[in-house]
Amino acid sequence: MTVISTVITKYGVVHASDSYLTVPQSDGTYKVVEDRKPKIVKVEPWRGAMSYWGLAEIRQDRGRTLDWLQDRANEAHKFKTAEAFAINLTGKLNDAIAEHPLKDRGIGVHLTVYEKVNDKTWIPELFRISNFKDTKYNVVLSRVRLTRETYNTNQDVRAILGVERKTALRVIQRLV
User: Fold this and answer.
1) pTM of the full structure
2) Is 143 exposed, middle or buried (0-12, 13-18, 19+ CB in 10 A)?
3) 114 has which bridge partners?
4) SS3 track for 23-63
5) DSSP letter at 126?
6) Are 157 and 172 in contact (CB under 8 A)?
7) What one-character DSSP code corresponds to residue 81?
């Protein structure tokens, strides 16, 4: 079981996580097998980071999920946009899970980045990549899905305020 918190403020983005790797027991409890394993990876091209929960060993021949995510983060500079990177990460994660002997194990990734808007303003974005059906985490889907969490919030703010994108961005900057 993992605790992940991702907070976006006007001062920056913070990822926080426990450092336990656990395995489920037959009685429904979890046994800690390692207690000092980070679950956060830096994604430099977009001033970002990834944190994960769920499946801790993505591929038996490639090691821990953390190592797998680090390999992906090292390739981030090859993509023109953070969104393109997130889409690619989702596809590769689906491929890796398809090869995993425990296909019914859930996994999730928070990817935060800063995206440049109007060639001068950097705004934060949270991509959620997960095969959990919802935040109850009790139903695992057959494929990993990608959602833009902050962008959706920005759209909602524009609709609520009834303003154009440029005005909404100024309002959002003041809010965060």
Assistant:
1) 0.78
2) exposed
3) 124
4) EECCCCCEEEEECCCCCEEEEHHHCEEEEEEECCCCECCCE
5) E
6) yes
7) S
* Tokens standing for residue 148: 């833009």
50: amino acid identity, one letter:
M
Q: Are strands 21-24 and 12-17 parallel, antiparallel or unpaired?
A: unpaired
HEC secondary structure over 4-28: EEEEEECCEEEEEECCCEEEECCCC
Between CA 34 and CA 18 the distance in angstroms is 11
> How far apart (Å, rounded) are the C-alpha atoms in residues 81 and 160?
28
Is 74 within 8 Å of 68 (Cβ atoms)? no
Neighbours of 5 (CB within 10 A): 11
Instruction: Name the nearest CA neighbour of 128 among 150, 144, 153, 149.
Output: 149
Q: Select from 169, 161, 158 the least CA-distant residue to 118.
A: 169
Distance CA(5)–CA(51), nearest Å, equals 9
**pLDDT for 97-129, tens place per residue?**
887 766 677 889 999 998 887 777 788 899 999
> Would you kindly state where each structural domain of the chain is located, as residue ranges?
38-175
Structure tokens at 109: 């990734």
